[in-house]
Amino acid sequence: MPVDPALLDDLQWRGLVAHSTDLDALRAALGEGSVRFYVGFDPTAPSMHMGNLVQLATARRLQDAGHTPYLLVGGATGMIGDPKDSGERTLNSLDTVQEWTDRFRRQMQRFLTFEGDNPATIVNNYDWTEGMSVIEFLRDVGKHFPVNRMLARDTVRRRLESGISYTEFSYVLLQSMDFLTLHRDHGVDLQFGGSDQWGNITAGAELVRRVTGDHVHAVATPLVTKADGTKYGKTETGALWLDPEMMSPYAFHQFWLNVEDEKVGELLRIFTFLPRDEIESLEARHAEKPFLRQAQKVLADAVTTFVHGADETEQAKAAAAALFGGGDLTSLSTATLGAALREAGVVTLDRSDGWPTMTDLFVTAGLVKSKGEARRTVTEGGAYLNNQRVEDAEALLSADDLIGGSWLVLRRGKKSFAGVEVH
Question: If we measure between CA atoms, which residue out of 61, 14, 71, 6 comes closest to residue 224?
Answer without folding.
Answer: 14
